[in-house]
Amino acid sequence: MKRLIALAVSPALLCCAxxxxxxxxxxxxxxxxxxxxxxxxxxxxxxxxxSLVKFSSNNLSGSRWGMKGTENIGSGLSAIxxxxxxxxxxxxxxxxxxxEFGRKAMVGLADQTWGTLMLGRQYDVVxxxxxxxxxxxxxxxxxxxxxxxDNYDNSLRVSNSIKYVSPTFAGFQFEGMYGLGGVxxxxxxxxxxxxxxxxxxxxxxxxxxxxxxNGGNTTTSATPSVRTWSSSSxxxxxxxxxxxxxxxxxxxxxxxxxxxNIGAATLGAAYSNTQYGSxxxxxxxxxxxxxxxxxxxNYRFSPALLVGLGYNYTSLTGPVSAHYNQLNxxxxxxxxxxxDFYAMGGYQxxxxxxxxxxxxxxxxxxxxxxxxxxxxxNSQEVVVIGMxxxx
Length: 391
Known about the structure:
The chain is mainly beta.
């Protein structure tokens, strides 16, 4: 009798085990925090340059927790979802404009033959394809372009978007994205689109992508009235590097990056052309053009120790003219598969003129990478030490 019961139950158990194998939900995350020293930081009055020691979250990676899952529908097709929350370790505050799932929120379909279609709040194609081949992919935002003016460190994401990601064909992959503005009768108002391709084979990899976002027609109540950004895309106008262009009609980014592995060494370079367009609702009246070139060299001294050196040069032309030179050095040491310690430093020198938040011409101030501290002068140094844990 016991044998008969066992024979009857076994197929049911096998069926359940197979169902669970085909469907999964994963909880994951990163916690990153440290202590930073900044030489040349504006004080509370916004004028004097001071030394600053502060608790610093999200240095090597953005702290986050998330859930992602897949359901096997059959015939190589799966339903997928991902929800990802960003937060500040020091305060516990939500990131990405106090959104609950501001880093990512999407649902979609993945097919082994035809690729993946996703809908929701997502990274743009430039970040997906080009960023992995820049130093930001290894050492985070301190190595980013000044003020992250070209989204080097993915300061922006795109809401209400539709994205397609192709399968990989002989090392090639391509993506396309469209973010809906959602304004009745004005399809172009607030829209975003992005597309690009990558190739990786053996030690060599290269990617190129394009991004465009329309700023919408929302205006301030001031006189004269100027635009406030209202797009399916977030903005980039967060530091003294580019806050004077916050009334831009559009953001346009073209970017290419490549890397080559030689034994324990990795060499890489990238270039971007970023343009902040202007129109009658902008406080500036000529397109602001940022050209950025960067190069880096990493060396893995052991499976645990990685050291990297990066250089970043930026020029601004258009309504004003400025130049930014930035040098960075970083190291990470892994004590386990999930936990590492890091130390990073950066120096930036600025020259020329830019626009302040009121649209007035001022001397260009330094602000290293996407670290977000205004210097109040034309140079800045930053040193950060910290710890990162992944789960």
